[in-house]
Amino acid sequence: MDINNRTEQATMVHYWRIKLFPKATRDDILKLYSFVQVVHSYTDQLNPDVQGFKQVRAKWKTAKKSLGMSEMREGDSSADSAARGIAYVVHRYGIDPLLVDVFLDSIEMDLTHKPFENAQDILEYTYGSSAVPALIIAKIVGLREEAYELAVLQARAIQQIHFILGMNQAMLLGRQYFPNDEIAQFGLKNLSEKEIARKPAEFREFIQFQVTNYHHLQEEADSLLKHIPKRLRTALRTAIDMYSWASKRIYDDPMILFKSGVRPSKQRLIGRGVVRSLYS
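Below the sequence we write its predicted C-alpha cells.
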C-alpha cells in the first residue's frame, strides 16, 4: 500500500461495507466515512499536514455549535463538507458531540509520533480512533444498546490485527502501535528493521504474542455477535474469517509481514461470503 494513501484503520466502516447497510442509512454512513477519511488524509502521509488537521478540527468546532443547521454549500472545501456532514449525523441520531472530539484527539496522536508506553495508552488510542466510529455506526443503523459493547470490542479486535498487518507501513510513517513495555518484555529495543534482523527469534515471539491478543479480543466480540441483525452479522463474520486466515499465516511466519504481505484472494473472500450467508 502506498504510504501516501490512508493506512487501514480500525473503524467499522471498513468492515461492514456501505452497500451492506440498509439503504435508508447509507448516505449517513457515507458522511461518517467521508469525515474519517478526510481527517486521516491530513495525518497519514510522510509529512503530515498539521495545519490541514487543525483546520478540519476548527471546522468541526464551528459546525457543532449549530448541529443540524449546516447545509452543504457549493464550493465547500473537503474540510467544510466533512465537518457539516458529521454535524448532521450527530444531530440526526442524538449522538454526543464529545465522541467526535474523542476521535479527533486520538487521531491527533498520529501527528506527534509519541510512543505508547503501555496497554492503557493503546486502549485510549483505539477507543477514539476505532471504537468511536463503530459506536456512531451502531447509532445510525439503530442497533440496540446491548450491541454497543460488541461495537467497541469488535473495533478493538480489528484494530489490533490492523496494527499487525500495517506494522511495516506504520514504521515508514514513523509510528509504532505497540506499547514499549510489551516490546521490552520480549528483549527488543524497538521494532526497527535493524533490531528485527538482529533478534528474529524475539521478534517472532513478540508478533505471536500480538496475534494471540487479537484472538482473545475476537473471542470476546464473538460472544456478542448475536446482538446484531443477520445481514450485518454475515458481513462482519466474513471479514473476521479473513482476518483469522491472515492471523494464522502471520503466527506461523511473522516475517511474512516484510515479504509478500497477507492478502486473501478475491475468490476466498467471495467463497467465505457465500458460506457465511448460508450459515450465519
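Confidence is low (pLDDT under 50) at residues 1-16, 264-280.
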